[in-house]
Amino acid sequence: MPLDDNAILEIGRHYRFQWESAQNAHVLLFPEGMVKLPGSSGEIMKRINGASTVGEIISDLEAAFPGADLRGDVIEFLEHAHGKGWIRTKEA
Amino acid sequence: MEKAGSEQKKLNLPLWLLAEVSYKCPLHCVFCSNPVDYATYNGELSTEDWLRVLRQGRELGATQLGFSGGEPLTRSDLEVLIAEARKLGYYSNLITSGVGLDEKRIAAFKESGLDHIQLSFQDSTREMNDFLSSTRTFELKQKVARLIKRYDYPMVLNVVLHRYNIDHVPQILEMAEQFEAEYVELANTQYYGWAWVNRDQLLPSREQLQRAEDATNEFRSRIGNRMRIFFVVPDYYAVRPKPCMSGWGNVCLVVAADGVALPCHEARMLPGLTFPSVRERDLAWIWNESPAFNAYRGDSWMKEPCRTCPEKEKDYGGCRCQAYLMTGDASTADPVCDKSPHHTVVTDTLERVKKLSAETHSGTPLFFRDDENSRLLAGNSRSPLA
Asked: Taking CA atoms, what residue in B is nearest to A20?
């Protein structure tokens, strides 16, 4: 499903996103399971806060990592995460 | 003791901490995976002991915490442990029969930060549910299922399958749909503990298994993404072993009710190993250093055909407990594998069961899990190899 730039994203119900120092990575926890989100995937996920829009998340990442054209990669990851139910769009 | 093939290799983290907080249980299920001699164990850990275990587990990198048993609800300090688990950053899972879960308690769990409840059902019918658990709990479980939904928990239903209920898979799935379950685990009995004692009565036939898998696939195609169904096959019908516990001392750390630490909840029956207690040692030593947790790590303990098998990285030689139960030697290949010289133990069992399942009830009685039977089985020196 294509995500609109104005869509506000939040972490999916029954998922918990947190930093794991033992793994030196962000992880997403859910019933009896875990996904490790190293590097850029963790950087994207930690900006999903129930307030920022897709557009704002992309701008923020581009400000944090200047010089790279991130849009395509970010959208691809967000759509993957949305399809998996890790994140969802918040009702306005 | 030599660290089995892992000297150079960094150990994985014990991502799963399974806290079997009590072996007390109001149910008497014939397929219970608890040790058959549980009634002879010494005392349960105190609240302070468990809080220490939770902190040490988190320091080691555990993220998933399971409260299991027995029936974990028999512990009145569960709320305290859940609150600590949340504070430490665990994702906590309560694995329960539902007996003892009223509205007051589930509200307290929510408040304390419990993340997930897995509710077991024995069957879709009152008659079979109550017979198999030797209790009257069917209506109560339905009530608990509704409570779980009302408190916005993900609904995970677990039904252990065997000869007596496997033909009810379509009705079980309908029941799960009515409860609006998000996940259903149709877990065929794994034959350890009480299930091992009752295996001749519980193993389904190949035809039953096939019908159940067909019914599950049919249901999946109808319901789509609304419900995720996990179908766990009984490995006796496989020709390659399961990668038991994803490897010995590789992912999972179990702490039993009396404080004994184990690489899996069945391992306690294995002879020749001294499993350390959390009363005496910290989890870091137990996981990293203890001879018991290192006994079957890596592959240097393996015999042929596992040692040179190209699939050893995939299935770790199967299950050590199953190898022991079937051959008396825990370091042989899991006899489920058709490369094992002992594979006929499995095929002979299936032949025997095929004859038995033609009859409605075999001559041998079912052993229900209770304290009296536990002491009886513990007194039998050949048990659980009886």
From this structure: B61
When scoring B55, B63, B68 by the number of chain A Cβ atoms within 10 A, the one with the most, hence best to mutate, is B63
Q: What is the pLDDT of residue B361?
A: 54
Tell me, what's the pLDDT at B382? 45
Name which of A14, A21, A27 to mutate to probe chain B: the one with the most chain B Cβ atoms within 10 A of its Cβ. A14
* B126 neighbors B167 (Cβ within 8 angstroms): no
* Contact status, residue B141 vs residue B96, Cβ threshold 8 Å: no
Q: Which chain B positions have a beta carbon within 8 Å of A27's beta carbon?
A: 63
- Name the pLDDT band for B155 (thresholds 50, 70, 90): confident
Among residues B53, B55, B52, which one has the least CA distance to residue B87? B55
Residues 43-72 on A with a CB inside 8 Å of B are none
Beta bridge pairs of residue A89: A9
Q: Does A33 touch chain B (CB under 8 A)?
A: yes
- A-chain CB neighbours of B118 within 8 Å are 31-32
Closest by CA to B178, choosing from B232, B124, B119, is: B124
> How far are the Cα atoms of A35, B253, B328 from residue B271, in angstroms, in the given order?
36, 19, 9
Contact A31 B93 (CB under 8 A): yes
Q: Distance between CA atoms of A11 and B61, rounded to whole angstroms? A: 23
Q: Which helix (H) or strand (E) holds B85?
A: helix B78-88
Beta-carbon contacts of residue B204 (< 8 Å; ≥ 6 apart): B161, B162, B163, B166, B188, B212, B234, B357
Which comes out higher in pLDDT, residue B20 or B355? Answer: B20
- pLDDT of B154 higher than 50: yes
